[in-house]
Amino acid sequence: MSTTTAGVLFVLSLVVALVGVHRPFGDHMFRAVSGARQSRVERGVYRLVGVNPAAEQSWGVYTRSVLAFSAVSILFLYAFQRLQNHLWLSLGLDPVVPHGAWNTAVSFVTNTNWQWYSGESTMGHLVQMAGLAVQNFVSAAVGIAVAVALVRGFARSRTGELGNFWVDLTRITLRILLPIAVLGAIALMIGGAVQNLSGGADVTTLTGGSQTITGGPVASQEAIKELGTNGGGFYNVNSAHPFENPTTWTNWIEIFLILLIPFSLPRVFGRMVGQNRQGYAIAAVMAILALASITLTNVFELTGHGTVPQAVGAALEGKEVRFDVSNSATFAAATTLTSTGAVNSFHDSYTALGGMMTLGNMMLGEVAPGGVGSGLYGLLILAVITVFVAGLMVGRTPEYLGKKIGSREIKFASMYFLITPALVLTGTAAAFATGNNSTALNVGPHGLSEVLYAFTSASNNNGSAFAGITVNTPWWNTALGLCMLLGRFLPIIFALALAGSLARQQPTPASEGTLPTHRPLFVGMVVGVTVILVALTFLPALALGPLAEGL
């Protein structure tokens, strides 16, 4: 079987699996976020934190709850790292330096998981388990909670209430993330992923040298790292390490976990607004963009431009032979289409156009299917922009799901999508203006791509890197930390403000002039608006970087 055929079958099996679980798993998530009954464990959590689960919140209170929880999480994780030498299972490691601890705390709380460090030599087991892995759960839950709150804004009318953040956070963590993560960890352990509390074992190599084989609670962190679209690896080389991702079939499981929740959330959307076909339309937009990206990334890597790649039949540099080129390219597309940021190959070694695809996936706003929660609320805001544009074209007040899209709503939607480009382009310009681009290992177009990739990844809360750039400096850790912080919470504020504005409206009955938002025409319009917004914003930067290198 050829590499191309194997790659096609690999992708098709993923598509079949995701289609198969879309409805049952989406229905399970719908029941988890919409049910009235509380479990005994959940009631205990509410009593512990002093929350009345029956009390709902306005968009302002919901937003403040998100920000307060995240702020406390950052402070806790920062202190955890700075004090790790005093903690159990520290493995004798020193405290993390202040600017590095700040960057990592912000990174994991914002669901970015950008890593300037080597996990096995910087973080002790307790920090990895009780600090980083815990944030993998709750930061993912925050994203899903915000998406659910926005959908409630579409589904409800003449109310200022969007639910209760603390109830949403608890239910999503306990009913959705934790059970699937446990099953995923067991599957990875069966496949050979490591799960222990070992500080490492010294062995003698075949050449007579000595080597330390590191261990740790790897499988448990790997499962939620992918399921929650987090991406931070236990080891420096992330999912390319055989202890994290041992075989081709564990590679398939990890990609499946990455895409599981984002591709199932449109079902939740359809159920909550009472029109399943609306959910199918959103899922179709995600699928079209995702399949196009996966296909192009594979083509660019399998028919790599350059003398050596063409001679050997593909771009092999930086890829694990146990995954081959196609499965590595599919993983790269999946991890940048979502906010995961995990890698099983070296993105800096991709062909110029293959690297451009990973950049472009993030620049799309990571909505195909995007991160857990963030992909859905990002695409719903794109749908709002689409109906606004369509309304201008026919001279009619735009409507989406019976809600009028007026000046207030379109301002929130516009600000949502202006934030990330402003952070990416400003950060890239600042790096070059201050001379901090000199830490890139390359000059010319590829050097620009390395810097552009770093700020694109941080601002979109992705976390992957070209890795051809040294970022463990006070300037880089501070700058990227600010981009991660603003790129996460400013869009959340505008998404929740939009939800509050929509929830207060009285529904408008559909008429002959209403744009059907469940048909192929609307799906195509949303795809077009998404691509055009990215092209108009980032094309000059891409032309100077990967496009120039490819040509």
UniProtKB/TrEMBL annotation:
Keywords: Cell membrane, Ion transport, Membrane, Potassium, Potassium transport, Transmembrane, Transmembrane helix, Transport. It is found in: Cell membrane. Pfam families: KdpA. Its main location: membrane. The keyword Glycoprotein does not apply. One of its GO terms (molecular function) is potassium ion binding. Part of the high-affinity ATP-driven potassium transport (or Kdp) system, which catalyzes the hydrolysis of ATP coupled with the electrogenic transport of potassium into the cytoplasm. This subunit binds the extracellular potassium ions and delivers the ions to the membrane domain of KdpB through an intramembrane tunnel. GO terms for cellular component: plasma membrane. The lineage of its organism: Bacteria, Bacillati, Actinomycetota, Actinomycetes, Micromonosporales. It comes from Micromonospora mirobrigensis. The system is composed of three essential subunits: KdpA, KdpB and KdpC. HAMAP family: KdpA (MF_00275). InterPro entries: KdpA (IPR004623). Belongs to the KdpA family. This is Potassium-transporting ATPase potassium-binding subunit. The keyword Transmembrane applies. It is a multi-pass membrane protein. The chain crosses the membrane at residues 59-80, 87-109, 129-151, 172-194, 249-268, 280-300, 376-394, 415-433, 479-500, 521-543.
